[in-house]
């Protein structure tokens, strides 16, 4: 059984927020930690980075000179938002992993100007982000309804409300790249099932480029990405009563040329054992042992089209920035086109 849904009308009737994170979410963290930290090669899924501190650190990453994806995607959106609004005639925008919805405003502006926009549906695991973004956007766009879904887009896509007209499902920032190839296929297939005949998926993906540029984007000079990476240990300390010392771990970011993805890891500076009290689990780290915390896949046009096709999606538009750093794709369910 899925956890109980708490649905509440907030201060403004235009806002509805539903939370699907409860005990099950705590269980998911516990299961991921138990599973991931007892493997021969230790690993944790990246969704646990994003408590409110992690979300703030991610926002700071987006402003860093080395982290080009946010700027490149914003450039594409600015160039193409009117065309996207015209092609989709969307009355609603569902956004997966919406965060602060900073770039989303470019799209909302275009849909608002086109006169079609009625509803925005942000879906994110970070509760504070969904609530703040609902408050801000209803203030910024008169008449806009916001139906926020606090949940995990790997488990709660069935909680996205039914469409009220043509819609765009946006999955921006390159977050699809944070899934390894097998899960990526599954997630894309599930997302494709949110699309009806008049709907479009708008997805951002980072492109393969010079490894030096890529590695700098994930290992910035100010050390913000390093703090973001170590933040997952603070989440474990708080949520599972663990006793990690984040300073025991060095931030590592490297481009895996074979798989064409960035890997972020935490490398233990010394041999030590950590206790995760909630799980009654002792975790031993050798000096130099690494824990993988994220992959961030970089795409070629061919690979991306292949992934879309496997999910039953057909490409409508391929959009990129003048430097060819990042891509936005607009696609539809092939069988419904
Ligand atoms: N779309 C924004 C934010 C990207 S950061 C942008 O382009 O800048 C990734 C976002 O996805 C974060 O807000 C994080 O909380 C959310 N997220 C990560 N894994 C998730 C999951 N499994 N379910 C729902 N949200 C998730
Ligand atoms: C959210 N995601 C697409 C970011 C990325 O680039 O893979 C997360 C991130 N990790 C380090 N910096 C940013």
Helix proportion: 25-40%
- What Rg, in angstroms, do the CA atoms define? 20 Å
Tell me about the largest β-sheet: 9 strands, mixed
In percent, how much strand structure appears in the residues? 25-35%
Total helix count?
A: 9
Bound molecules: S-adenosyl-L-homocysteine, N,N-dimethyl-L-histidine
Mean pLDDT, nearest integer? Answer: 94
Q: Ranges with pLDDT <50 over ≥5 residues?
A: 1-12
- The first-to-last residue Cα distance is 35 Å
Shape: globular
What is the SS-derived class? alpha/beta
* Strand order within the widest beta sheet: 1-2-5-4-3-6-7-14-13
Tell me the number of strands.
14
Order of helices and strands: EEHHHEHEHEEHEHHEEEEEHEE
What does it look like?
This protein is an alpha/beta fold and 337 residues long. It has nine helices and 14 strands. A nine-stranded mixed β-sheet has the order 1-2-5-4-3-6-7-14-13, sandwiched between helices. Strands 8-9-12 form a three-stranded antiparallel β-sheet. Helix 2 (52-63) runs antiparallel to helix 8 (224-240) and helix 3 (69-88) runs parallel beside helix 4. The chain is globular, with a radius of gyration of 20 Å. The model is unreliable at 1-12 (pLDDT under 50). Bound molecules: S-adenosyl-L-homocysteine (SAH) and N,N-dimethyl-L-histidine. The site of S-adenosyl-L-homocysteine (SAH) has 20 residues, from helix 2. Residues 47, 50, 55, 58, 62, 70, 97-99, 103, 124-126, 129, 152-154, 172-173, 175 line the site of S-adenosyl-L-homocysteine.
């Amino acid at each position: 059984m899925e956890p109980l849904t708490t649905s509440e009308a907030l201060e403004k009737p235009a806002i509805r927020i539903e939370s699907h994170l409860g005990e099950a979410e705590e269980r998911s963290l516990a299961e991921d930690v138990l599973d991931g930290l007892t493997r021969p090669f230790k690993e944790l899924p990246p969704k646990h980075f994003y408590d409110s501190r992690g979300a703030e650190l991610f926002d700071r990453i987006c402003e860093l000179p080395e982290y080009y994806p946010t700027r490149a995607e914003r450039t594409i959106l600015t160039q193409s938002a009117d065309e996207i609004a015209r092609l989709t005639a969307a009355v609603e925008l569902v956004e997966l992993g919406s965060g602060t919805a900073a770039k989303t405003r470019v799209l909302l502006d275009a849909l608002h100007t086109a006169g079609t926009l009625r509803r925005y549906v942000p879906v994110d695991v970070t509760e504070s982000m969904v609530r703040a973004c609902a408050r801000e956007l209803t203030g910024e766009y008169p008449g806009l309804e916001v139906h926020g879904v606090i949940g995990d887009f790997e488990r709660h896509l069935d909680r996205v409300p039914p469409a009220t007209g043509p819609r765009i499902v946006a999955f921006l920032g390159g977050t699809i790249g944070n899934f390894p190839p097998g899960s990526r296929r599954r997630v894309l297939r599930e997302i494709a099932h949110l699309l009806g005949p008049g709907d479009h998926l708008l997805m951002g993906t980072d492109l393969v480029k010079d490894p030096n540029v890529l590695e700098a984007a994930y290992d910035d000079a100010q050390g913000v990405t390093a703090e973001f990476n170590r933040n997952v240990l603070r989440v474990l300390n708080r949520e599972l009563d663990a006793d990690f010392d984040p300073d025991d771990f060095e931030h590592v970011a490297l481009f895996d040329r074979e798989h064409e993805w960035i890997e972020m890891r935490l490398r233990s500076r010394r041999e030590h054992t950590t206790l995760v009290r909630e799980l009654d689990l002792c975790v031993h780290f050798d000096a130099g042992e690494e824990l993988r915390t994220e992959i961030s896949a970089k795409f070629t046009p061919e690979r991306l089209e292949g992934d879309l096709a496997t999910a039953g999606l057909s490409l409508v538009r391929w959009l990129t920035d003048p430097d060819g750093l990042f891509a936005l794709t607009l696609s539809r369910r092939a069988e419904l086109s």
